[in-house]
Amino acid sequence: FDARGRGLKTAKTWSSSAGFDERAAFQAGSYPAHLLVNDLHVGDQGLFRCRVDFRYSPTRNALVNLTVVVPPTPPIIYDDLGREISSVVGPYVEGSDVILKCAVSGGKPDPVVSWYVNGELEDSTYHVNRFGDVINELAFRTLNRSHLGSQFSCRASNTRLIQPVEKSVVLDLNLKPLFVRMRQRHSEKLQAGMEYRLVCETAGSKPPATLKWIKGGKEITQVSTQDLDAGNITQSTFLFVPTPQDNGASIICRAENPWLNRSHILEEIWSLNVVYPPEVKLSLGSTLNPMEIKEGTDVYFECKIHANPKISRLVWLFNIKEKQGVCGTEGEIERGREEGHKDKELSEWICVFQRERREFKGRREKLALAKNEDGMKE
What we know:
This is Nephrin. Pfam families: C2-set_2, Ig_3. InterPro entries: CD80_C2-set, Ig-like_dom, Ig-like_dom_sf, Ig-like_fold. Residues 74-170, 177-257, 278-319 form the Ig-like domain. A hairpin with a 2-residue loop joins strand 30 (369-372) and strand 31 (375-377). It contains 1 helix and 31 strands. It folds into 4 domains: 8-66, no CATH class; 76-174, Immunoglobulins (Immunoglobulin-like, Sandwich), CATH 2.60.40.10; 179-272, Immunoglobulin-like (Sandwich); 277-377, Immunoglobulin-like, CATH 2.60.40. By secondary structure, the protein is mainly beta.
């Protein structure tokens, strides 16, 4: 800037092509006068001297040290396998650890690289690798379901003049079911032949759990399943008609996250108590040959009864008349129970007809009546 022999408004200005060239201009009309530099380069950093020459006064000099800060490049986040993560990291399993590496290149001076979890500082330790990148490796231990959706942010900053550069990822987790339960357990006793609506539900699994019904070691497939509460609750329903053969069996409702191992399976087991009236089977004694029975010989009949609960009364009839003395009677029922049987629902009774008479021949009248709390059967 040269104002010799002319006014300030018509002063001669120029910029060296070896210096700023057209990127700089001296602003003499402002107060204080200053040098405006556009499109600052790293090479512009240095010690600047402002020199003012007067016609009659001594020359004055002022020194200014210019420091140029170069912002770092945006961080890059990698998982423990070295894969770059763009937005979502995982899914991980509850109880596991997450290892994340943040790498930042460039920047002058070297940036400070820090990890924040949900906005809170988690780790500010970093190092510079052999390539000049600044690295901060985060080890976040023992994940639990409260960490689902947490935001992990890597920030890099080397000046307060501008906002830090930042990269964030969201944590995804696979969650085990919290519980499994049968919502509508009916009375302790189920009536054979009646229809019951059984409902099982589970919650807390991500992704939603699968529910399975199992009876007698076999999976029940005729079920209806739905997800509720945005997938947080899974509910399964099936219509069950118990049979006498189901008594003592177990129904299992099993909740399982298919993305987790079997150690996270939850089950509820219901042991069935199915009540039904006696089922009576009457037959000629097993050691007798019906073709060899003669008048005057003794014959006996075997009566096998399945019932739950156990029979409370047993009556032998012939020609509508009760047969006593030679048959299993009501007073013997308790003894029959005490003697036991592999099939606890089965009781066996014998009725002996001494000196069989001709009037028995070909008759099919009732010979046994059994009764329990659930009904009577002949």
